[in-house]
Amino acid sequence: MASVHESLYFNPMMTNGVVHANVFGIKDWVTPYKIAVLVLLNEMGRTGEGAVSLMERRRLNQLLLPLLQGPDITLSKLYKLIEDSCPQLANSVQIRIKLMAEGELKDMEQFFDDLTDSFSGTEPEVHKTSVVGLFLRHMILAYSKLSFSQVFKLYTALQQYFQSGEKKAGDAEMEPAAREDGERNMEKEELDVSVREEEVSCSGPLSQKQAEFFLSQQASLLKNDETKALTPASLQKELNNLLKFNPDFAEAHYLSYLNNLRVQDVFSSTHSLLHYFDRLILTGAESKSNGEEGYGRSLRYAALNLAALHCRFGHYQQAELALQEAIRIAQESNDHVCLQHCLSWLYVLGQKRSDSYVLLEHSVKKAVHFGLPYLASLGIQSLVQQRAFAGKTANKLMDALKDSDLLHWKHSLSELIDISIAQKTAIWRLYGRSTMALQQAQMLLSMNSLESVNSGVQQNNTESFAVALCHLAELHAEQGCFAAASEVLKHLKERFPPNSQHAQLWMLCDQKIQFDRAMNDGKFHLADSLVTGITALNSIEGVYRKAVVLQAQNQMSEAHKLLQKLLSYCEKLKNTEMVISVLLSVAELYWRSASPTIAMPVLLQALALSKEYRLQYLASETVLNLAFAQGLNSGPCAFEADGGTTEPNSQPRLLVSHTRETIQYLNISSWESRNRP
């Protein structure tokens, strides 16, 4: 069952997916790309309503916002985007830019003088306070501040920008002829080089708005849909380019920290996190007080994020020290919100202790008192998860999750709605109710459409989605539908590539399904080769699977030693589900060693644990093993001849009797689950 506290990482640069960046020293300036966008806006204003259809104008309006906020792109790519929306307008823009670039400097001067006419008249083409109006005013103001030498350099850059676009278009036209001559590969390589050169020539320092938009977009994608974000290497390259022009850009350091977390780089992520808070303090926080937005706030949240980072990488001692520092600073500043985050992380660090539920209940009460629904909901779900492992009844747990869902819908916490449904799926799987688990998994999948959508619309590539799909694959594999499980895993691999944050979930699921299939087919050598991969992802699961393989290969003494060590370790961790599985394997080892009598108390212990913790699937499996063991325990099968007929002794009758008891037990359990209030 995945931990619900993965969402506790505090992100001080993002609120509702919007990055609050303050790019110091970076202002809007005129570039050749922005001149091309200004030409597009001017042509849209000059074109009458009848010349452009309603659908084309709607596509153009949708195109404008990313063009205004996004980074500079090549001219050929800009032509392609405009042509896809309105081919007629693309031709006009191309002719206008060509006349300006091949003309004289005064043509560009005249163009900027004509832009001011857009705001004149009783019904101007553009309102001054609109998005387009603000962009036009910023560009006109930035151009008017340029000196003559700067204007000349801008015009020269515009000519180079136009020539590179024309060269790219010419290469694209020559490519079919090159293919006919049999030189397709060479031309393709030259074309790729020219594209990279254009991208380098087009790259430069981003303006304030471009940087804010870039950081907001990438941070939102990393949280909701990592596959649509830039690759770790590409994103780091862009961030380094951004920091080269402005090293004090604090939010870029934080995005670098998030990017390094994707590849599990503890050194670089720690380095970027410390740089973020250093820059945050140095860029004006000293002039503020030590209150809500002051110097002390940066220090305590720096310590809190450092504790979360160490906890994520398993450095619990360092995490505890950093958390103590955050608590001390937060208490001095009387910051209750920070203290509540610290209290939640205290539970995460101490959840193996027997009294951790007391700390968690206190955390939930405090979060409700201070009006923190996000933390309160996470606390409730963690409490439900803990009590599920303790064997509480399902109806009480579902009632608690229902109260948590009310908080989600009331405060529109869509991310926690997904986590809650994934939690229900895991709980029903833990209790052995495959039908209910399947229902909850399908509910989550139907809520998050598999179609390609914007990250701000639906969160269909989050951890909850991966957990639900993994449960779905395992449920199909348990029923023997390995082909269906493979299709689900194939979809998981497409949604979560191997370098993504949640890829370990489907990797472990895939290895376990392959292992079970190999064991069922009797391919023990293949199953043994899969143990290494399982151990790398989950050490406890890997040791258990290794013991199962040794047992199947008749290496009983080695398997028994391994199972005994694993049993002691799991009892210490209170991993009841694995304890029962180990006990069943030990019992199987005993009766395969012709000692079914010794297996009986082991199976009875497993049955008692299964009933105590309400693990119906394991209880049913244990009862079946008991029936089989009692059948073996009744002695060897003997046959007596009487009048030409053979009649078995009492052992098969006893086995049939116990099998009937097993079926009766399963039917009663199923009836109870259907009629439980």
Detail the topology: elements first, then pairings.
Blueprint: E1 14-15, E2 18-19, H1 32-46, H2 54-69, H3 75-85, H4 87-102, H5 105-115, H6 131-144, H7 148-180, H8 184-202, H9 208-224, H10 232-245, H11 250-262, H12 266-282, H13 295-312, H14 316-333, H15 336-349, H16 356-369, H17 373-389, H18 394-411, H19 414-430, H20 434-447, H21 463-478, H22 482-495, H23 503-520, H24 524-537, H25 539-552, H26 556-573, H27 576-592, H28 596-612, H29 616-633, E3 639-642, E4 645-648, H30 650-675
Antiparallel strand pairs: 1-2, 3-4
Helix pairs in contact: 1-4, 3-4, 4-7, 7-8, 9-11, 10-11, 11-12, 12-13, 13-14, 13-15, 14-15, 15-16, 16-17, 17-18, 17-19, 18-19, 19-20, 19-21, 20-21, 21-22, 21-23, 22-23, 23-24, 24-25, 25-26, 25-27, 26-27, 27-28, 27-29, 28-29, 29-30
Architecture overview:
With 677 residues, the chain is mainly α. 74% of the residues lie in helices and 2% in strands. It contains 30 helices and 4 strands. The strands form 2 sheets. The protein has a two-stranded antiparallel ribbon. A two-stranded antiparallel sheet has the order 3-4. Strand 1 and strand 2 form a beta hairpin. Helix 24 packs antiparallel against helix 25 and helix 25 runs antiparallel to helix 26. The longest helix is centred in the N-terminal third of the chain and has 33 residues. The N terminus and C terminus are likely disordered.
Give a short synopsis of this structure.
The chain contains 30 helices and four strands.
